[in-house]
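Example 4.3 (complexes with small molecules)
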Amino acid sequence: MPTSKQPSASTIAATLSATPQPSQTQRSQPQPLALNELIDADRRYIWHPYSSINNDLPLYPVAHCNGTTITLEDGRQLIDGMSSWWSAIHGYNHPQLNQAVTDQLAKMSHVMFGGLTHRPAIELAKRLVEITPAGLDHVFFSDSGSVAVEVAIKMALQFWQSKGHPEKSRLLSLRSGYHGDTFAAMSVCDPDTGMHHLFNQVLQKQFFSDAPQCGYHSAWDEQYLDDFKSQLYNHRQQLAAVILEPIVQGAGGMRFYSPHFLKRVRELCSHYDVLLIADEIATGFGRTGELFGCDHANISPDIMCVGKALTGGYMTLAATLCSTDIAEGIAAGEAGVFMHGPTFMANPLACAVANASLKLLLENDWQARVQQIHKHLVSGLEPCAQLSSVAEVRSLGAIGVVEMKEPVNMAVLQPLLVEKGIWLRPFGKLVYTMPPFTITETDLKQLLNALYSALSDYEKI
Ligand SMILES: *Cc1c(COP(=O)(O)O)cnc(C)c1O
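Answer. The structure with pyridoxal-5'-phosphate bound is encoded below.
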């Protein structure tokens, strides 16, 4: 066999590094897109929340986040005032949360939940039952808040069906409410600002009562309940459940209301045999100053939805909890089982990071932190109330709201906020903040000063 002289391995390596082959290098390692190409490609291919493909509103590519700082691709650093929509309560890139994800990743990132189960889900369900209001003893995991609301509504309907009351199939919700973007969830969002007119032909018709007119601290007057009471009474035979956001109505207007209202709603629902669904997707896990909104009024709903901050903003996960009465009722019904089962139900990575997030929350004095943030929100937002474009400022727990007289022009305000080094995402008339609980006093003061400064520049434009 002829043997030609083979070059040694080290000769090959030396040759390759001396004469790189550009075409091959390019093929195996595509150049990252330049910043302008990134934004162009985004605009060409992607929808963002509530966006049009034909807008040129400002858009900011993020390179990385750490603690309460968002670093943009262009190097600018922003103090985060949004917790990525209520969720990143411990800030970003948290060592303990990262560890929980990597530990779980080494075991399994996912496994089906039909016929199989796993520690992260069991531990999380047990923990949720322990910390939520008494009587919520069964947990259904899903992938997003909207689906948790769909599941809650389905639970209520299946419950009444199995009790022999299929006519109890409607919901009563509060105006200015927001419960998500899927169909059943949309049907209980505010009927005017929500999407009812667009999907009029397909949305289930529900009942609505006036948004609570009593602020969180208002002296209680039973008249605040007049409209709710008459809606509940008039439709009680058709009503499966009342659904509401306890204490804080979030995306529907950032409105705070009296615990007395919630307490009376609970009493009236029980009295008229209508279930109560508490949508705690925004209010859950300490944001309002209590662990759950329901805790302000010391009530237990029949069904509760949690999401958003459940995983500390790491993964998408939500849960619907219900009482034993509801679970037993469904089990005794015609179907015999609860008719829902997402593919990625109880995703182990998400459950593992949720367990770590709850541990962090409960082991650190979250209540003191939220109170501390609250104190700064009260004093830091005060100057904004003096601006002529501002209608009102208000705060509760770690939520601060500046309500403007007119809807804000995002094309103008968003870049102003970014120039001042803060990340806020106003909508409509509302410029609001719910910072991570881990924000430092210095950063929080800077956030609020920058907000004031941006708003005073804004009204001069
Ligand atoms: C955000 C939100 C939802 C919807 O959750 P998604 O995860 O966005 O589907 C439902 N209810 C309330 C109160 C929310 O704040």
